[in-house]
Amino acid sequence: MIAAISGRDAAITLIYLLAAACFILALKWLSHPTTARRGVLAGEIGMGAALVATLFNARIVEFQWIAIALVLGSALGVPLGLLVPMTAVPQRTALSHAFGALAAGLVGTAEFYLNKPDIEKTTMVALGLEVVLGFLTFTGSLMAAGKLQGIVRDRPWVYKGQNLVNLAILGSALVMVGLLVADPSRTVFFPIIILGSLVFGVMLVIRIGGADMPTVISLLNSYAGLSAAMMGFVLNNKLLIIAGALDGSSGLLLSIIMCRAMNRSFANVLFGGFGAEEARAGEVEQRPVRSVGPEETAMILDASRLVIVVPGYGMAAAQAQHKVRELSDLLMRRGIQVKFAIHPVAGRMPGHMNVLLAEANVPYDQLFDLDAVNPEFPLAEVVLVVGANDVVNPAARTDTASPIYGMPILDVDKAQSVIVVKRSMRSGFAGIDNELFYLEKTQMLFGDAKSILGEVVDELSRMPAKEGVSR
Amino acid sequence: MIAAISGRDAAITLIYLLAAACFILALKWLSHPTTARRGVLAGEIGMGAALVATLFNARIVEFQWIAIALVLGSALGVPLGLLVPMTAVPQRTALSHAFGALAAGLVGTAEFYLNKPDIEKTTMVALGLEVVLGFLTFTGSLMAAGKLQGIVRDRPWVYKGQNLVNLAILGSALVMVGLLVADPSRTVFFPIIILGSLVFGVMLVIRIGGADMPTVISLLNSYAGLSAAMMGFVLNNKLLIIAGALDGSSGLLLSIIMCRAMNRSFANVLFGGFGAEEARAGEVEQRPVRSVGPEETAMILDASRLVIVVPGYGMAAAQAQHKVRELSDLLMRRGIQVKFAIHPVAGRMPGHMNVLLAEANVPYDQLFDLDAVNPEFPLAEVVLVVGANDVVNPAARTDTASPIYGMPILDVDKAQSVIVVKRSMRSGFAGIDNELFYLEKTQMLFGDAKSILGEVVDELSRMPAKEGVSR
Amino acid sequence: MTRNLEVSLYIFVLASFIGYQVITRVPGLLHTPLMSLTNALSAISLVGSLILAGAREGSMTTMLGSVAVFASMTNVVSGFLITDRMLKMFRRREAPKKPGVTPQ
Amino acid sequence: MTRNLEVSLYIFVLASFIGYQVITRVPGLLHTPLMSLTNALSAISLVGSLILAGAREGSMTTMLGSVAVFASMTNVVSGFLITDRMLKMFRRREAPKKPGVTPQ
Ligand SMILES: NC(=O)c1ccc[n+]([C@@H]2O[C@H](COP(=O)([O-])OP(=O)(O)OC[C@H]3O[C@@H](n4cnc5c(N)ncnc54)[C@H](OP(=O)(O)O)[C@@H]3O)[C@@H](O)[C@H]2O)c1
Ligand SMILES: NC(=O)c1ccc[n+]([C@@H]2O[C@H](COP(=O)([O-])OP(=O)(O)OC[C@H]3O[C@@H](n4cnc5c(N)ncnc54)[C@H](OP(=O)(O)O)[C@@H]3O)[C@@H](O)[C@H]2O)c1
To answer: Among candidates D45, D53, D29, D35, which has minimal Cα distance to B141?
Structure first.
């Protein structure tokens, strides 16, 4: 089947191929901080080339709507890209999944009404998947964003037989896709499919606690990617398929990483209503703990040689990353070695702590991951836990009953002494008590991370410089 | 362009896709010894499936020739696979490149005569490349195999203006491909192209010394792969394209690795006539060296805590790997730690030493590569160099004039003492003298590696066991 | 089954392999930028929507297409911008020696 | 330029990427088996030659095809056999504790 194509189409095709290569390189270069920005550039080049090339497509005859849409899109994109604070990145990500999925869904819809009733079966399958995935991801991501932003109430909304209802909704949507595959002229089904998907998206996410959102978002990410790939199947556009597949696999891998690091299954995340427990176990019975003040903290820190800082969600919530940076700089200038221990799921999204500390200008070679830092804890005179809880909870090693049992944790309890910065004895995301806080060697520094660490910094800077100190 | 295909073809297509996936997994699983054999299995499954599926292709109407060819092929393949000794692996590899390339060339030829004169331009380009690469790789690989096996004389055959002649041959072949692209009816050119390619293959390799063959072989490997990929372009068979691309990139990467490790450029390998120097510098002027006997060697080894063994081409030539294994076992049972330092280009092909030692049943976690072992040399009381020369030549660090200057080497000269096993003061592959042999701390144990190490083993086993030794 | 589907399947499988390979090599350090970058890339669905928005094949198609273009374009712009913004912040040891340096 | 060429180019580029990715992950320890395995795999050109050998399209085609089948099949069989033979030899620490164990 020698189907020759015009010179122009050939050119477009080759540019698409080039764009695909750029996208792959973009992700490849993201494998190291020093090359990462080159990766972004590659991505931009590929995107730009593909966009321009597409405008030369013979089917495009009028440009005003395109122009308007592009301008408006950019107008909204710039603030979304430049003004969103780092702590709001999870919401923003969810939002952009919603947008991407919406686009896929709409294109699918348009394609259906353009080509009906004679749509080739396999194409119809792809089209159906594109639309279902697209629209459920759209509403699902919106819900997720809403919950993270606190617009939608965070507490999971759970009732009996919920899973059945949800599956019923999704099932019927898929059945109708099947019917359309059999006979694409049954167009009445199409709107119902759309509706069903939209509803299912809401239902899926409404039952999930805010803290589980990151995992869900990554999952939705892979759906969005898959939907884009399906669009590629429908339009048989290879560039779309490639980009979609890349996006899909990244979303899937990230959610797997998170689940592993939390030692939980997808099913548990999606149907476990984990967040509900969080609500329940909010308060814990009171037991005596040793608490400490900023001044004493400053002295303890100043007296040690190696300090390991363990940041957690609390640092993000308190926006305390800059104070933490100041503190570590002060200590280092006083000849004390400072390392940061980053747990893979510390915070509320993958790499959360890394970004915040980078924002606060902490060099990334001062950050160490689980495997690298765990052997070091016994050597540390002091470990400063800043708003971390679950990721340092020894129950994960010992208590088989605990919901986080088996989750790899930072062995803070092996350190010589521990100072924990948090506002109260309230539990963390997993909603369970933490033995670490009651250990002999542990002292609690109660207060909002930002303000209390501010005081510690002031104390330290007031102290006289030590003699003969050099780093 | 909705070109529907029959159910059978669809099935075949899907099986090919599965085969492609198997091939990729095969290489992926080769990334670790524990999964490597699973990789081979995956490859076999993919190959088997593809073979069977192809037999169902509608174009195939008579089977007797296929049957005969398959039987004969297997009949030759089994001995080639099972009986070839490990030391002859380089030749075998070269030979199989020749076979693969031949197949590609023949298929290309047949396709040309079947479809002429109306062959689509781009197809003709692919076909031309397939044929040229195929046939030049065929003869080139045969030459290489011959040289390594000692059938063809190893000494490179060099004359003035050789490169010009070679380029002329290749050039004219390519020009004629161009003419055929312009007008495929000029069939007269085709045989000339074949002839030119065959000749060029011979010419290319005839001027290269046997020791450089491994690099050339890898390069030919990538040609063979490329040629197979081109066949895929011609038959638009995606499985072929994928397999070819995998083979091609592996060949290319390996040759790059070798060139890097030798700190040489492709050009230097292909046109440098490196082997010639080898010949020239065969004999080196005599300078005093300390030599040592088997008995004393045994005692020195027995007196040390950490012994690092550095195997080289000499071990392969002498088939001494089993003796080396015995020696290391003896030493370990006498409570002495034994490590093997493997240079990336020790021997005559990538991974040569690893295979030989594995054959001798040395566990691979006892083998350490350059970066891992170099820091350890200062800690070793004795380094036992078994038939290695260039890869331990300090000139690579110091002497800018040396042909191996800049090649990363094993820092044997940093050890506390060195024993070198070789037959004479003759130089190695690079044909240069080795300062290491004249150092204060170095002693030469002259003799054929296998026999002389055998004596050392006997000496050691005769020694009384030490008290209180445990590993 | 059509040739197109065959081709699409091959592309999809190969691309997924690549995705798996490259993304498993991205360190945890960069997982957040990874999210936003892949996000921007998958907004390539732009190419699909552009054609619909410009194809003058009924006002509905144009409308759906235009909205899709708008949505995708938003992702393209914001995605690349925020990714680069994050990556700019990642620094080696040198920088913070002199404290108080604000992220550029 | 034909659709076929377009497709082939995509496949080739993607496959090369994959090749680069997976092969850079193969340790030096296994470079010799790598050579022989990729060798066996590229003998998939078998599928091309089989068709020619069986297509009854002139004796020359049949002959060329058959020879090609023979050559490829040799590589398939020998390639897989020798690779597996090599890999069988690679052992972890345990084995050689009791010396004199001959490679199975
Ligand atoms: N990173 C991810 O991708 C991801 C995704 C999904 C789920 N998760 C889950 O999130 C959890 C992360 O663990 P984590 O240890 O980082 O956090 P955590 O277990 O949620 O604990 C955070 C702690 O910070 C304290 N805190 C909150 N606001 C604070 C403020 N303003 N100042 C000081 N302290 C404050 C809280 O105690 P007080 O209220 O007493 O102050 C709380 O105990 C893990 O369970 C993980 O499984 C992570
Ligand atoms: N591995 C690869 O992929 C590859 C590819 C291309 C080129 N090369 C080149 O090959 C060289 C490898 O270095 P190498 O140090 O392993 O080997 P080498 O430099 O070639 O030296 C081998 C030494 O072994 C000795 N020898 C030979 N037969 C022996 C026997 N039966 N018993 C004892 N000793 C014997 C020889 O000295 P006597 O004659 O005095 O015994 C010779 O000096 C490098 O220059 C590398 O660049 C390697």
So the answer is: D35
User: Bigger pLDDT: C3 or D103?
Assistant: C3
Chains near C (3 or more Cβ pairs under 8 Å):
A, B, D
Coil, strand or helix at B7: helix
Residue of C nearest to A36 (CA): C87
Bridge partners, D102 (sequence order): none
Size of chain B in residues = 471
Per-window interface: B 29-48 vs D, CB < 8 A: 30-34, 36-37, 39-40, 43-44, 46-47
For A68, how many CA atoms within 13 A lie in the half-sphere containing its CB?
A: 11
d(CA B198, CA B133): 9
Q: What's the confidence (pLDDT) of residue A4?
A: 61
Who among A1, A5, A24 is closest to D1 (CB)? A5
DSSP string, chain D: -BHHHHHHHHHHHHHHHHHHHHHHTS-GGGHHHHHHHHHHHHGGGHHHHHHHHHS-S-HHHHHHHHHHHHHHHHHHHHHHHHHHHHHHH---STGGGSTTPPP-
- 């709507």: which residue's tokens? A65
Q: Please give the pLDDT value at position B297.
A: 93
Q: Quick check: A396 and A408 in contact, CB under 8 A?
A: yes
Closest C-alpha to A367, from A416, A311, A299: A311
> Is the Cβ atom of A426 under 6 angstroms away from ligand 1?
yes
Instruction: Determine the number of helices (DSSP H) and then strands (DSSP E) in chain B.
Output: 18, 6
- Which residues are registered as beta bridge partners of B345? none
What is the 8-class DSSP label of residue A435?
G
Q: How far apart are the first and last CA of chain B?
A: 71
Q: Is pLDDT above 60 for A317? A: yes
Residue B30: phi, psi to the nearest 5?
A: -75, 0
> pLDDT (tens digit, 9 = 90+) per residue, A211-230?
677 788 888 999 999 999 99
- DSSP H stretches of helix in A319-401: 321-333, 352-359, 370-373, 395-398
Give the contacts of B12 (CB within 8 A, at least 6 positions apart).
B53, B54, B56, B57
| Ligand 2 atom closest to Cα of residue B318 | 31
User: Quick check: CB of A348 below 6 Å from ligand 1?
Assistant: yes
Nearest CA in chain A to C8: A233
The verdict on the CB of residue A387 being under 6 Å from ligand 1 is yes
Task: Give residue-wise pLDDT tens across range A45-71.
Answer: 999 999 999 999 988 999 999 999 999
Q: What six digits make up the tokens of A176?
A: 């109708």
For chain B, which chains pass the contact test of at least 3 CB pairs under 8 Å? A, C, D
Calpha distance B82→B74 (Å, rounded): 12
Cβ proximity of C9 and A15 under 8 Å: no
**CA D99 to CA D88: how far, in whole Å?**
17
Q: Are D68 and B107 an interchain contact pair (Cβ–Cβ within 8 Å)?
A: yes
Verify whether ligand 1 is closer than 6 Å to residue A423 (CB atom). yes
Q: How far apart are CA B327 and CA B74, in angstroms?
A: 40
The active-site residue, picked from A390, A411, A413, A433, is: A390
Nearest to B42 by CA among D83, D31, D20: D83
Which ligand 1 atom lies nearest to the CA of residue A390? Answer: 19
Going by C-alpha positions, the residue among C26, C14, D34 that lies closest to residue B253 is D34
ipTM, two decimals: 0.84
Tens-place pLDDT, residues A322-357: 999 999 999 999 999 999 999 988 887 788 899 899
The predicted-structure confidence for A427-454, as pLDDT tens digits, reads as follows: 887 778 898 999 989 999 999 999 999 9
Please tell me which residue, B159 or B332, carries the higher pLDDT value.
B332
Which of A221, A286, A386, A423 for a ligand 1 pocket mutation test, highest count of atoms within 8 Å of Cβ?
A: A423
pLDDT bucket at C63, cuts 50 / 70 / 90: very high
| Residue that is written with structure tokens 């040489």 in the block | B264
The three-point CA angle D28-D30-D36 to 5° equals 125
Q: How far is the CA of A435 from the centre of ligand 1 (A)?
A: 16
Contact A421, A447 (CB under 8 A): yes
